[in-house]
Specification:
This protein has 306 residues and is mainly α. It has helices at 2-7, 15-22, 44-70, 72-75, 82-95, 159-165, 192-204, 220-230, 238-245, 252-271, 277-289, 296-305, and strands at 97-98, 109-110, 119-120, 125-130, 135-140, 151-152, 177-181, 210-214. The protein has a two-stranded antiparallel ribbon with strand order 1-2. Strands 3-6 form a two-stranded parallel ribbon. The chain is elongated, with a radius of gyration of 25 Å.
């Protein structure tokens, strides 16, 4: 791809040359966020992941660059710039599709010319490589009107995932979630033995680690872990723990304590952001009305943190 774009060895009338001319020259994934733009995301775990991605990407470039310097004739490249490599990597990352050519691997990807111009929708679609026709096919589960845009589903991704891998966000996105952790200190637990017993129970049922809070619901794992942590020393026993796992009510007082903790937890989480939901919603509304124009990266950052 880099060779084709750099030296245009393909005939002008070539199908692939025409395709290359249509590819975007710039991308809006988080790989292209500047150090000044990253804080706009306001999500420290996400920012840390993006910084790690940037380091990995540059390290990959250095390895490829060594090969280009060592085998210029064999590769057909006299040189390779960072911009060239980032462009090619972005094309593959944002426009490739999965191909089942090797059952032993799960990372078989290819760029299917013109198929990759289909935009994203959350409506379910089926796609795959047809070996008989040697082409990549997509099957929609609904009919399209004449002139209507044909779309495909990239997967059920949150906005941070869409922004990192494809360079866009959706507002609102029902697939959005935030990953959180729970610690004994949050529940004012100090007895080492009780803490150990609760952690052991959570580990036994795979309920420890990171939890997800979705836009419209709280994950069962998070809710169940909170219920276990909220149990008093007197109420903590196998019978009550099994009740919780079975979605049974331990007591009215326990249910109220769980609700109180979750409300306080979410309020604390929201207050940790420099801007409020209302602030961000106002910025987006002003942009849409034309009163305050936002850059594409800032727009995506605001939508991402909403």
């Amino acid at each position: 791809m880099i060779i084709s774009r750099s030296f245009f060895f393909l005939p002008f009338s070539s199908f692939h040359n025409y395709f290359l001319q249509l590819l975007p020259q710039k991308f809006t994934t988080t790989d292209y966020f500047s150090e000044d733009e990253l804080p706009e995301l306001q999500l420290k775990p996400l920012i840390d992941e993006i910084k790690t991605d940037k380091i990995k990407l540059y390290n990959q470039f250095e390895e490829i660059y060594k090969c280009v310097q060592k085998y210029p004739t064999e590769l057909g490249l006299k040189d390779l710039s960072v911009d060239q490599y980032y462009w090619a990597q972005s094309v593959v990352q944002t426009r490739s599709c999965h191909v089942d050519v090797d059952p032993s691997r799960s990372d078989n990807y290819c760029v299917a010319p013109f198929f990759d111009f289909l935009n994203h929708t959350f409506e379910p679609t089926d796609g795959g490589f047809n070996e008989k026709t040697a082409s990549y096919e997509i099957k929609s589960q609904r009919s399209f009107r004449k002139g209507e845009e044909v779309t495909i589903c990239y997967g059920y991704h949150s906005n941070p995932q869409l922004l990192r891998h494809y360079g866009f966000t959706i507002h609102p996105n029902e697939q959005d979630f935030v990953s959180v952790s729970l610690t004994p200190q949050m529940f004012q637990l100090s007895d080492p033995q009780l803490i150990s017993q609760k952690n052991t129970f959570l580990n036994e049922y795979n309920l420890s680690g990171k939890y997800q809070l979705f836009r419209k619901e709280i994950s069962w794992n998070f809710l169940t872990a909170v219920k276990i942590f909220v149990l008093s020393q007197q109420d903590f026993c196998d019978v009550n723990c099994i009740k919780i796992i079975s979605d049974e009510i331990v007591s009215e007082h326990h249910e109220k304590s769980v609700y109180k903790f979750i409300v306080t937890f979410i309020e604390s989480l929201l207050s940790s952001f420099p801007t409020s939901i209302e602030d961000d919603a106002k910025l987006l509304a002003e942009h849409l009305s034309g009163h305050h124009q936002l850059s594409i990266n800032r727009w995506n950052s605001i939508v991402c943190r909403l």
